[in-house]
Amino acid sequence: MDRIMIFDTTLRDGEQSPGAVLNVDEKIEISHLLEQMGVDIIEAGFPISSPGDFRAKGEFRP
């Protein structure tokens, strides 16, 4: 049977909404929750685009 994989962009696209800003701790917490829910791929942002994304990149595990 084929398997459906879930690809989540909350941590990247979610911050594109006006007024939506996540700090590093919030991004890490959300990524852990997504992992617990069984999300296969989490797109966490672009480290080159912001200092916060750059700092957070070291906290995520593959």
From TrEMBL:
Keyword annotations from UniProtKB, A to Z: Amino-acid biosynthesis, Branched-chain amino acid biosynthesis, Transferase
Pyruvate carboxyltransferase domain location: 4-62
Enzyme Commission code: 2.3.3.13
Pathway linked to the protein: Amino-acid biosynthesis; L-leucine biosynthesis; L-leucine from 3-methyl-2-oxobutanoate: step 1/4
Entry keyword annotation includes Repeat: no
Keyword Chaperone assigned: no
Entry GO MF terms: 2-isopropylmalate synthase activity
GO biological process per UniProt: L-leucine biosynthetic process
Name of a matching Pfam family: HMGL-like
UniProt cross-references to PROSITE patterns, sorted A to Z: AIPM_HOMOCIT_SYNTH_1, PYR_CT
PANTHER family per record: 2-ISOPROPYLMALATE SYNTHASE 1, CHLOROPLASTIC-RELATED, HOMOCITRATE SYNTHASE-RELATED
Protein name: 2-isopropylmalate synthase
